[in-house]
Model the fold of this input.
Amino acid sequence: MKQLLIASNNEGKIKEIKKVFSGLDYEIISMKEKGLNLTIIEDQPDFAGNSFKKASEVSKQTGEIVLADDSGLEVEVLGNKPGVLSARFAGEYATDQENNEKLLLLLKDVPNERRRARFRCVMTMYWPDGFYIQTEGTCHGRIGFVPKGSHGFGYDPLFILEGFEKTMAQLTIEEKNKISHRALALKALLELLLSKTVPKD
Done:
């Protein structure tokens, strides 16, 4: 069975990816499970660039097939910020709570109808020979006024999904894996993996 290395130390992401890819003919491992401590500087201007950089650099350093994603929150009234800085919105080593508190502070006078936002995720799967595939997933919603829910991570407790009256953090992992931005990008990736255009070795 081939190994697929996930270029992330985010346990929430890894859990989601493993669940969606559970039926695939790959042994899915995290960098922590492989004993790797690699830091890739995410200095690209967009999600696609950061996703590609992480996947390609980790693959070149390890010789493994690597899956990397870059994802984040875009809030329309903030000019699509925090965007690529989503994980570091309140500072380089900010916690999820600190990032959420900063977002709420910036939106404290913004009415409900102007709190539109979207989660975006770009996935890159990179082979050691330089071949790669890239997919994107987006889900739309709005930013709530108070955090709700105990599932998920990041901005999930504030993001009220379009068509739902609950936040992403109030969804079960099964529900989230059907409609989240990461789930949509992963499903698109699965479709490519099952096609004849992707290397099987």
